[in-house]
Amino acid sequence: MQVPLFRLRCGLNSYEWGKKGSESAAARFAAATPSDSLSIDSDKPYSELWMGSHPSNPSRDIDTGRTLSEIFADNKALLSAGVAARYGDRLPFLLKILSIDKALSIQAHPNKKLAEQLHARDPRNYPDDNHKPEMAIAITPFEGLCGFRPLAEIAHFLASVPPLRSLVGDDNARRLAAEVATADGTQDGGGDQERARTALRSAFGALMSSDADAVAREVPRLVDLARSEGDGFAAGGVSSTTGRDMAELVTRLHHQFGADIGLFVLFFLNFVRLQPGEALFLVADDIHAYVSGDIVECMAASDNVVRAGLTPKFKDVTTLVDMLTYRFAPIDQQKMVPTDYPYATLNRTAYSSGSAAVLYDPPIDEFAVVRTQLRSVGSKVTMEAIDGPSIVICTAGRGSIAVGSTRLDVAEGFVFFVGSSAEVVMESTVGGSDDDEEFITFRAICELPQGLQGKDSGGTVPHRPRRVDSAATNFVRTERATQKRLYNDGDISIGDVSDADNLVPLKIAGPLPTPLPTNSALCSSSR
Q: For a Cys-Cys bond, which of 102, 303, 376, 459 suits 431, CB 3.0-4.6 Å?
């Protein structure tokens, strides 16, 4: 029987938008695993590291060379019965590292039904029949364009950027502005949402149907305005994006792509900057484009992309315009705020150093991601068994990972598969008072909600990992919403216990401190 912990060799892509040489996190992480076929070239772009069982670039056991799908075919227990019954001999998610130097295409990913139709019609350009919701977590400062802006911001740009208005057309611009002026299309439920989305679709559709001659004529006008007006570009911008930011984006993307329709699309989309640890969740049928930075990206296992700009690759503008939801909202509504991972136990060293394990849990079944940050030598986290598979990548530092009696060293770029029902222990060998280095890992997991094993939920039921209970986790119930709970085995757990049966908080292992800290100390942000 296959040991439920083994190291992986993962595939590296070299698309032109990737960072070059060792500046690429994807390249550095790939190079951490010895390979006769990989030698990092300082002049070559390295864009993506793929971790999973997708046939386009499958990961392999470093010792045997077998792909994950080959291993799963003989060892379905590694996936769990429920995951194997529902998804077959493959992982339902695909984990990636993206290293972005040049903007990716303006794109969206189809929902399940549309993916099946596109794959049947054009399997060359749409190789999968699966949907592709995805989540991006920054590991370096990141920039992106994600989702449609609030209508008021789009209307502002249509009024203040003449080349943009010329392509969209006066009638479409006035119709969209009218939705703002009459308070229609507000995100708080006021006004006629359907009419507002129709106005947005008309304006965006008109832009995307602009002929090449019109785009070629208006791009120089747009770039000249961006270069000459600086802070005053686009009448100073909007509250979320300054005129200076928009001017810089226009000139940067023009340098990368020349006279491309994408230079105008950016006025319709939210511009976002993320710091390490911040995240976005992108549902199927939502428009986006990554601009720069290194990220961990996790998605449903699919390689379908519908592109419409900022790319020399195949474009399918009609499909993109037709498939979008035309939801519009401030970018903060697309950010995903992590919560304490409820199945992790920190030892005293980890707790006292401010270490943490947090969960990014999107509203889909295929995946969630746990980020673990251990900040001192000897900091340890124990993660309870889950009923599903996972993949772990180390993005910084050094340490170890153990499942049962199998213990393996970990360094930056190492990738591991962890089988179902395996308790995982990770310990740092870096960090401390004279060492700022941290041991950081990301773990993509899949555990189906109760009752969905082997069924097709269509992604409508939120992913909620099942709690693995044990006699050691008996606790004192209390009606006070923020009261600490003391576990029989000496653990401390903190959280909202107004509904004690549903609470599954991060736990701190070890004997109780003397004297016992107050609630405010236990709940401090240093954890």
A: 376
In the numeric block, which tokens belong to residue 205?
Answer: 């559709």
Degrees, nearest 5: CA angle 464-467-472: 160
* Buried/exposed code over 120-131 (b: 16+ C-beta within 10 A; e: otherwise): eeeeebbbbbbb
Q: Which of 267, 291, 317 is a domain's end point?
A: 267
pLDDT of 491 strictly over 80: no
Closest CA to 410 of 385, 436, 384, 381: 381
197's tokens: 């989305």
Instruction: Note the pLDDT tens digit of each residue in 299-319.
Output: 987 666 777 777 777 778 888
Q: Pick from 88, 8, 113: which is nearest to 50 by CA? A: 8
Question: Could you give the CA distance from residue 420 to residue 442 in angstroms, rounded to a whole number?
Answer: 17
Contact 25, 139 (CB under 8 A): yes
What type of residue is 246? M
Looking at the fold, whether 132 and 160 belong to one and the same domain comes out as: no
What is the rounded distance in angstroms from the CA atom of residue 110 to the CA atom of residue 140?
Answer: 28
Rounded Cα–Cα distance for residues 45 and 13 (Å): 9
**Range of the structural domain that residue 475 is part of:** 469-527
The pLDDT > 90 percentage for the chain reads 63
Q: Name residue 282's beta-bridge partners.
A: 134
- The catalytic site residues sit at 307
Residue type, 456: D
Say if residue 431's pLDDT is above 90. Answer: no
Residues 257 and 133 placed together within one structural domain of the fold: no
**Gap between the Cα atoms of 380 and 382, Å rounded:** 7
What is the rounded average pLDDT for all residues in the chain? 82
Burial (Cβ within 10 Å: 0-12, 13-18, ≥19) of residue 137? buried
- Do 241 and 126 share a structural domain? no
Backbone φ/ψ region at 394: left (φ over 0), alpha (ψ -120 to 50), beta: beta
Mean pLDDT, residues 13-20 taken together = 96
Report the CATH number that the domain containing residue 74 is assigned in CATH.
Answer: 2.60.120.10
Q: Is residue 472 packed enough to be buried (19+ CB in 10 Å), middle (13-18) or exposed (0-12)?
A: exposed
| Dist CA 314 CA 306 (whole Å) | 9
d(CA 32, CA 398): 12
Model pLDDT, residue 182: 66
Burial 40-63 (b: 16+ CB within 10 A, else e): eeeeebbbbbbbbbbeebbbbbbe
Instruction: Say yes or no to pLDDT of 217 above 90.
Output: yes
Q: Which tokens belong to 442?
A: 């990301």
The neighbour count for residue 209, using CB atoms within 10 Å, is: 13
* Terminal CA-CA length for the chain: 39
Q: Tell me which of 212, 232, 267 is where a domain ends.
A: 267
Place of tokens 């304006």: 203
Determine the residue type at 370: V
